[in-house]
Amino acid sequence: MLRFIKKILIVFTIPIIVFFINYYHNSKGYFNKNSKYLNEVVKHLNEGKNLEINDEYNGEKLTEIRIKNFKAKEIDTLVIGSSLVMNFGIALERIATNFFIYGANLNHYNSIVSGLIKKDVKLNYVIIDVNEFLFQSKKITTEKVEKFDIGLKDKFIKGFSLKELIFSLNPFKFNVIEDYKNANNLVLFFDGSAVQKKEYFERDKDSAFKNSRLLKRRILMNKNLKSYNFDKNQFELFIKDILKFSCRISFYITPQPPEIYDDYKVYYENIEHQIINFSKDKPIDIVGSFNPNTLDIKFDDFLDARHLSLDAIKKIYSSKY
Amino acid sequence: MLFNSIEFLLFLPIVFVLYWFVFNTNLKAQNSLILVCSYVFYGWWDYRFLSLIFLSTIVDYIIGLNIPKHDSDKKQKFLLWCSVLFNLGVLGFFKYYNFFVDSWIDLFSSIGYEIKSVWSLNIILPVGISFYTFQTMSYTIDIYKKKLNPTKDFISFASFVSFFPQLVAGPIERASNLLPQILKKRSFEYKQGIQGFRLIVWGMFKKVVIADSLATVVDNIFNNYEMLEGGVIFLGLIYFGFQVYADFSGYSDIAKGTASLFGIKLMSNFYYPFFSRNIAEFWRRWHISMTSWFTDYLFIPLKIQYRKSNLLINFLVLMLYFVLIGLWHGANLTFVMFGIYHCLLLSPSIKFNNYFRLNSSNLSEERFFPSIKEFLKVCKTFLLVTIGWSFFRAETISDSFLILIKILSDASFPSHSRSFLFIYILPLIIFEYLNRKDINLNENKILKNPFVLSFLILTILNHLKDSTNFVYFNF
């Protein structure tokens, strides 16, 4: 028996070492609050430096630290949303404090706004990304930014992650950069905007790739459409919080690829109609539309089947302002 | 509880320590521990259905004890039928009741007589019901056939019925193999233990890394097959074959390995079926515990009874055998069609009566590479089996035919196809080919290397996102 236990321990030595390294480094803040790496990233961003990040990061945790360390007393333009607005700072060519989170939902939005209320920040203008993630049922959207925790099970899995290990041991997790166009990896701007890797912007030329993404979107739409539900009451509470800032508000609606819009026209028309009705008696204006035809958006304007090119975003925004 | 869950990763070492260090003083204590742990393991999913296992255990325990007490064959047969009817009744109610009701309604509506579906019930299918009912049936049948003496030890018998490594998805053990092991004092053997551990790791790798990676793509393909090209759908069928295989053989390996840790040997359920040279060989290598159950308890008795009958009767016997194998998998006409399809593939050999002729030789027994003839035979069998998966995977019969029509009518293959998943399949094929003569992987040098095992464990943990059900849990 002793021989057996010894053998098992030998086999588990490497996984256990991996776990301890990941736990000790805690690079993305999954295991405890003290993530040296994320604190450093936030520190640099607060100092106005742009960073090239050499791997994906924990958006929720980064946002939590950013809000915690937020010093400014006034924000000219605040952007809240998903990856659809991740590069708004560059696209709009204005100083926008961007708090986007990949696949953000209403709970994320609420957490950001309540965090800023606590900081007593003055807001002038808020751009809110309105997309289908926002209308996912409550079941899917339980995570929050404040006290963000991935749960014991996921911590266990992340602990053994080889990807995390490589990231933990990488001494060049981020570099301070001046010119994002020459960067190879994800670029994080001091305002919180992000720009994807270089090849991401070259993908729009690959029609086979784009078609496969289109198919994937259709599959996801078919799968999730039933769970998308515009919860007016929850949304009302969120807007009520923002109105406390007595600022100007815009709902930004990203057009859909024509192929997707045509197939799910009824759903998108219905949601847009509800959004317009919702904003009617409030100081909210709407930029963009799910309908690509009203904005002359073609499939070529998309980097994949969801995200628009910088030029297309500029075009949509300039058509309104 | 799922094997591929963190709960099981904690459960197994705890039971192992209790079994060998706390309850090792006497057999009764060990078997009681097995019984309690098995009920915890099953109850983790739904404790309400424990009563069903318990009832099944009591009925077969009592009938098993009573069969030898009667001298007359008539009374013994009566008791046997009580056991068989009880087990099939439970199985029939929970698994097939709605299927038969709906089939009757469909039949009547097809001839213009509409019946309201008031008879359909909202029944939950208890996990593993097809496995443990067949296992307990084999107990009473073997007693009736005087191949086995009944046990008076209720705890041991209950442990045999509910033995957690194979309770929910087999292998369907014969009482004559498993029960004597449970009744005998067991001692820990290093070789058996380490072999079990290796099998657990390898089975987990097949399930978590290979099957689950394929499952996402397979689900996408078959849920949206109307929008896809024929080439992609055919690729989906190939992936599905490997997904089911990696999933179920992975489960069987984990079950076998876990049982080994407790000093118990379970039968092998798969013997590299994708290297079969004909369909009959495929069925001798695929889900061996189930096919051999049907062969021993249904096919051979019927064959003996109708040995002098004509070809048509022989064909009907074969058809019944495959239709029941199909139905065993699920209450859906697609599974019946799956059985009929395989019966038709085998029917040409009826004339020679050699479809289940024992052929223990392995592919390319003497040489490293198979001959061209052997290779072509393997490819042909693989192709035929792959086509058959369309019936197994589709929701309805019309879907399965539409899938096949789409494959035949639109054989195009887009550049952004999902062929990258072969990185999961090719290593599996190579690994299995190298081990094609070693069913238990006893001599496998790769798995004996602790670094390889470490790497496999790390890969498993890196793929362990959400615990996904095993495909055969539904059967």
Describe the structure using short key phrases.
heterodimer, A: alpha/beta, Rossmann fold, globular, B: 475 residues, mainly alpha, 2 domains
Question: Could you please describe the fold and organization of this structure?
Answer:
Chain A has 321 residues and is α/β, with parallel strands linked by helices. Chain A folds into two domains: 1-58 and 152-189, no CATH class; 66-147 and 197-321, Rossmann fold. Chain A has helices at 2-25, 36-46, 59-68, 88-91, 106-118, 152-159, 162-169, 198-202, 207-224, 232-243, 258-263, 265-280, 310-320; strands at 50-53, 74-81, 96-100, 122-130, 174-177, 186-188, 194-195, 248-253, 284-288. In chain A, strand 2, helix 4 (88-91) and strand 3 form a beta-alpha-beta unit. Chain A is globular. Chain B is an all-alpha fold and 475 residues long. Chain B has helices at residues 6-22, 27-46, 50-66, 73-110, 129-144, 154-162, 175-183, 190-223, 230-261, 279-285, 288-305, 311-329, 333-346, 372-393, 397-409, 422-434, 445-448, 450-463. Chain B is globular and about 65 Å long.
In short:
The complex is a heterodimer of chains A (about 325) and B (about 475). Chain A is an alpha/beta fold.
Assembly annotation: heterodimer
- What general outline of chain A do the C-alpha atoms trace? globular
Structural class designation of chain A? alpha/beta
Task: Report how far the terminal alpha carbons of chain B are from each other.
Answer: 16 Å
Question: Which sequence of SSEs, written as H and E, runs from N to C of chain B?
Answer: HHHHHHHHHHHHHHHHHH
How many β-strands of chain B, per DSSP?
Answer: 0
CATH architecture of the largest domain in chain A: 3-Layer(aba) Sandwich
Share of helical residues of chain A = 40-55%
Largest sheet, spatial ordering of strands of chain A: 3-2-4-8-9
Radius of gyration of chain A: 21 Å
The total of beta strands of chain A comes to 9
- Extract low-pLDDT stretches of chain B: none
Main sheet record of chain B: none
Computed CA radius of gyration of chain B, to the nearest angstrom: 23 Å
